[in-house]
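Data card: per-record layout.
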Amino acid sequence: MALQVGDRAPEILGLNQDGQELKLSDYKGKKVVLYFYPKDNTSGCTAQACNLRDNYSELRKAGYVVIGVSADSAKSHKGFIAKQELPFDLIADTGTTLSQLFGTWGEKSMYGRKYMGMFRTTFIINEEGIIERIISPKEVKTGDHTAQIL
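The structure for this 150-residue chain is written out next.
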């Protein structure tokens, strides 16, 4: 059963691009934008990450921290962060543990081919660690994601 609005987010989020464990308690007193995206260095994912990057100071002023999550490796994340100059952490959810918990990993299809993949979804977690809003895959606007969050 996927996490819903009103549920407590898990304490341990996963390992970032540097292999450091990220915990929800590390962000006490801040709202967390936990955004799940399909793949590093693809057009939609790059547009989304760059929109969050370009508006990062605005998000920070509003009390948010941003954390991205995909099934890509830490090495892939490091390259993506360097190439796009991203000021936030990316979780390497290579085993899809966090994605499955949040209900963002599942069967997708493209051109009639079925495969397992990440659904682009954003969770807004309040200062107490409770999920207060979910921006679903159909709602996410990659080029204007910050406005949707704020």
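Known properties of this structure: The domain at 12-16+29-149 is CATH 3.40.30.10 (Glutaredoxin). Strands lie at 12-15, 21-23, 31-36, 64-70, 89-92, 105-110, 113-118, 121-125, 131-135.

See the next section for split statistics.
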